[in-house]
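Quick one: co-fold with magnesium ion.
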Amino acid sequence: MKELAGISASPGIAIGKVFVHVDEAPVIPRYPIDTRRLPDEMSRFRAAVEKATAEIHRLKEHATDIDGAEQAAFLESHVLMLNDPEFALTIETKLHEQRTNVEWVLINARQEMVEKMNALDDEYLRERIADIQDVSRRILNHLLYREKTSLADLTEEIVLVAHDLLPSDAIVMNKRMVKGIAMDAGGRTSHTAILARAFEIPAVLGLSEVTRLARVGDTIIVDGNRGHVIHEPDAAATKRYVRVQREWRKHEVQLMGLNDLPAETRDGKLITLNANIEIPDEVESIATHGADGIGLYRSEFLFLRPGNLPTEEEQYRAYSYVLENIGDKPVTIRTLDIGGDKVSPDLEALGEKNPILGWRAIRYCLSHVDIFKTQLRALLRASVHGALRIMFPMISGVEELERAYEVLEQVRSQLSAEGVPYARDIPVGIMIEVPSAAMTSDILAKRADFFSIGTNDLIQYTIAVDRGNENIAYLYEPCHPAVLRLIQLVIRNAHDVGIPVGMCGEMAGDPNVTMILLGLGLDEFSMSAASIPEVKRIIRSVSLSEGEDVVGIAMEMKSYTEIDAYIREYMQRRFGTEVFAS
Ligand code: PEP
Ligand code: MG
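Sure, here it is.
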């Protein structure tokens, strides 16, 4: 038995068997094939195609999301490509020409096809390149006996162990089968952590060496509450954790009892508690956790699935689905925030030296106006189905905001000219997540209908600490006086001109800082749906003036160590040793 300490990324307890996810590119062997053995080599190819086809059919059965129909159509197109007789003929001809093993023939054929398609001035064909890569990767994996490559293919309950997991891997994994996540890399606000919380999968990240220890089939316990992982637990540890798991579930059920009650302080201040979602299916969690609406829908996850970029129609359907399934509650959809750790093979933003400071979010959209306009058209069209709010990410100054408005205006005029209906009164807000935006929030407040503070990035950029880097995670401190001062400034500037301020960074869902945010005057808290009941419990047990007193004391302190110690001790005294969801 070995216990490792990491970063608590998603609460809950998981006990299960290890599945190690390794996604390095396979090394392709190359060896000559005797002419007499060429038919056998071709049979190997056909057998691999058959297995790949069966694998895709299995995947189709799992395509249950809202975009299940599109996913099924997309997978069907891969079945057609796999079984295209011309494709088999190309491989057979090349096999006879090159007389090397079929894996080598396949990657050469793929390379040739990709180069040809790249050279053509045909957008549609260029978009098919990703499909060719995907299909040939599948065949290759079967030829090389690497069957389970995609996390979408999991069919047994497992605890996922990985060195690192890209958000684009996490978004496609078969969520019903992943009971826990343990990773060497990652921080609490990395997007993989955010997805784990969204899917309510207990997760511990930043473990440094879990992949060196854990092997497929080992038993492992993920304690997402304490940020610990126990590898090959002994009988006593297993017994203890089975009990903790039961208590944790009971605690969650008790909190659900607050679902229909408002988040109102004892002295009558009503707070809005919203949920953050990443995929349309999560809309169900709004009712099950008593959210008032959606404070952040991270639309970029639609763009992170393998395959082509979502079309206007696909986006329209996803946005409409969310709006229609939430009644008249407000839904804040953030425009594409691609880049940083959210990279997609289908978008041209790879290979930057410093992606976190690079071509992200609104910067990317303003230099890819076609992609931006397609999304805005889909959003405006969907606006007739509910209470939509549009939000621009990573605004760093007023110029960027004005340019975003210009594009929005062009899209509005286009739709009006086409006679396409859309809501005329959509509130448009911005995320405050870059220090320059926080410092100029008095100027920005006059041009936005609302603010939402993105603390995940605001902390990252203010303290200059990469939010996904486990080595410096100790510096990533929400209670740093610089962060608290910026939040205070933003709220004051917004309130001066009468616009509401929300927070959709992970800090909003941390019950340890609820009193501080309340005291600073935050109007809306938006978080992973599962965190709502605990935050609501705290809001309902305190008064606004108590929060203001806490802020008064904290803001006088000189360091985050001091503030953190004060607030933890205060919460402990005030709420006892009950479990917190952070
Ligand atoms: C944030 O930065 O706080 C935020 C909510 O956006 P994201 O986590 O998607 O960068
Ligand atoms: Mg952000």
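If it helps, Residues 260-575 form a domain with the TIM Barrel fold (CATH 3.20.20.60).
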